[in-house]
Here is the input.
Amino acid sequence: MAMWQFEGSNGDGQFTRGELEAETKELAQQKLRQQGISILKLNKKKKDLDLNIPGLTDGVPLKNMVIFTRQMATMIDAGLPLVQCLDLVGNSEPNPNLKKTILGVKASVESGSSFSESLKKYPRVFEELYINLVQAGELGGILDTIMNKLAEYIEKSAETKAKVKSAMKYPVTVLTVAMSITAGLLWKVVPTFAATFRSMGRKELPAITELMVKISNNFITAMPFIAGGVAAIIVVYKMLMRTKQGPYVRDWLLFHAPVVGNVIQKSAVARFTRTLGTLVTAGVPILEALHVVGKTSGSLVIERAIDYTRQKITEGKNMTAPLLETQIFPTMVVQMIAVGEATGAMDVMLGKIADFYDTEVDEAIEGMTAMMEPIIMVVLGGIIGSVMMAMYMPIFTMGDNVK
Here is the structure.
């Protein structure tokens, strides 16, 4: 499908310009005539240079998505036409990738596609949840309300992700530094000290020093094998992630990890309930809502549990029993969903669960950090302290040699 740029005048004689999609120039002319536009100029749009750098051009920052969504909600609520809203927001957007996307969506809408259909053309920017909610808003005539709910959802999701990432950064950073320092000591410092002591006539060194020198010698000898082993582990991991079961096993291990697993579980429950609550509030049917929730959960463990629940619902069961059978979601959460199902207030109940588990995530992160800090410091201090003690022990006994 090619993109065409046009200039012309509408039925009121006013000058207009824009873009539209069509397979051929004839089809583009036909679409413009159907819109009542007299064509003055029609050219095929030249393709932009697309530098697809992973992590830089794929998607846009969540902050920009929130601002875009809120601006759209405000303008639609004020009664502005959708094309005009997209034009105003797109031309004022500072992020070049999002700007290009918004203007592309605007051109698609101008060519006759719906807003949700236009968003589907940019899956790297708009995830399935976003598109489904917009579609529900279009059908229900509540697009402004849905856009506001989407902005709130994105903000909450970004906040939860930031908290989990922040909690993981500290231990990973400290462990990386500890391993680097230990490797540096074994590689450079220990051999230097050992050679100095030998040159001073110390034939016998304290037991702890001898042990550290042996570890250092073995470490230097084994360094190429260690580097090769690390590279092999990375290659094997990437190969496993390309298999069908590899990503599921990884997510399952993270989900059931001793300390980190608690945070991941609570974060997953908060995301599941908030996403499902947002979709139910928008009037999306429960089966379709569960499908979207599974696809956007970010965890194959959650996705498979939700798929199992959907299958059981299609067989005539309610939602509560299958959720319990998966043994993924806490009993309290399932019971609250059952109450919401029975009273017809599912969206309200899901929102309350999500708020509760957002608080639980905060407490779990604080607890994990508080527990890991002293453990990491003790391990780090023990390793570096042992190396330093081994190096200085011969100095403490130097007086015996002088005598």
